[in-house]
């Protein structure tokens, strides 16, 4: 049913957007069920960062086949993004960023924003660069829109711009967004050249994955397990942790058995065993939650 719906969206040239909003593994599964020609055309209409997330879920041979049939310029952009680890700033960024020269007037900047509006990841923020594409500052759409047409961007730019290196860990990027309430963040290389932009929608996915990983870890559940996982696979993945828990439980039982005679003499100690175990478990859970 989902494949039929995607096919109808493809006929209306509207399939790229919903695929980009879905989980990459689900998008890849749907794309694999389509005709290869349809899949290539849909991928070509997707934002580069979304296309990369989807391609990473496909076999390497399928990636090469699809990219060989995509426009060469688009294929080059996607191939470059595929070289970055998925859990890095490079893996999160979109290269579709608006870069402006400080020599431009406000009117010239507005003309560029109008031209790039459809393909750019966002136009709410633009970045000032020099002739070598080195990052020099950030410009907000609000400041540009409110300024006089003849005003130079050099008088509007904010030079104290926070950026992230392309190799930065995705979790570090998420912490920056959380700390400074960013909407977007520029990505640079070692020469401080502007490579792309990370927006909050991509970071929210990272935050959700990190939170899910933490919760799964607290319960000793493998990250690749879900409600759709077969009972046999769930059993196979959970058994190692269950064996560890069983070993610690047996160890606790042996400690209790060591003091069996003392417990037999003082019956109140038997009552306190449950209280101590419960309090210990609650304290441990509170500590894990805070950490």
Automatic annotation (TrEMBL):
Keyword presence, Membrane: yes
**InterPro entries attached to this UniProt entry:** CBS_dom (IPR000644), CBS_dom_sf (IPR046342), Mg_transptr_MgtE_intracell_dom (IPR006668), MgtE_N_sf (IPR038076), MgtE_transporter (IPR006669), SLC41_membr_dom_sf (IPR036739)
Keywords linked to the UniProt accession: Membrane, Transmembrane, Transmembrane helix
Q: Which GO terms describe its molecular function?
A: magnesium ion transmembrane transporter activity
Q: Please report the stretch or stretches of sequence annotated as the CBS domain.
A: 93-155, 156-213
Q: Which CDD domains match?
A: CBS_pair_Mg_transporter (cd04606)
Q: Does the keyword Isomerase apply?
A: no
Cellular compartments per GO CC: membrane
Its transmembrane ranges are 242-259
| Pfam families found in the cross-reference section | CBS (PF00571), MgtE_N (PF03448)
Q: What is this protein called?
A: CBS domain-containing protein
């Amino acid at each position: 049913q989902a494949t039929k719906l995607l096919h109808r969206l493809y006929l209306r040239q509207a399939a790229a957007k919903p695929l980009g909003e879905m989980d990459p593994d689900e998008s890849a599964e749907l794309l694999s069920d389509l005709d290869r020609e349809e899949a290539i055309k849909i991928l070509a209409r997707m934002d580069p960062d979304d296309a990369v997330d989807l391609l990473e879920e496909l076999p390497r041979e399928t990636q090469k086949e699809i990219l060989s049939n995509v426009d060469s310029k688009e294929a080059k952009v996607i191939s470059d993004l595929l070289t970055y680890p998925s859990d890095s700033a490079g893996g999160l960024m979109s290269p579709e960023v608006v870069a402006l020269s400080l020599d431009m007037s406000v009117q010239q900047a507005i003309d560029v924003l109008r031209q790039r509006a459809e393909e750019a990841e966002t136009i709410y923020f633009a970045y000032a660069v020099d002739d070598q594409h080195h990052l020099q500052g950030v410009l907000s759409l609000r400041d540009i829109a409110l300024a006089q047409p003849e005003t130079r961007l050099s008088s509007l730019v904010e030079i104290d711009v926070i950026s992230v290196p392309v190799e930065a860990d995705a979790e570090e990027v998420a912490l920056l967004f959380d700390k400074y309430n960013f909407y977007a963040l520029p990505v640079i290389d070692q020469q401080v050249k502007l490579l792309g932009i990370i927006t909050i929608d991509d970071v929210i996915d990272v935050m959700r994955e990190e939170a899910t990983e933490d919760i799964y870890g607290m319960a000793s559940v493998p990250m690749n397990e879900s409600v759709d996982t077969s009972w046999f696979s769930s059993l196979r993945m959970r058994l190692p942790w269950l064996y560890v828990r069983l070993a610690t439980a047996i160890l606790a039982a042996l400690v209790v058995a060591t003091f069996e005679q003392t417990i037999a003499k003082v019956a109140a100690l038997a009552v306190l065993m449950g209280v101590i175990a419960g309090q210990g478990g609650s304290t441990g859970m509170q500590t894990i939650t805070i950490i």
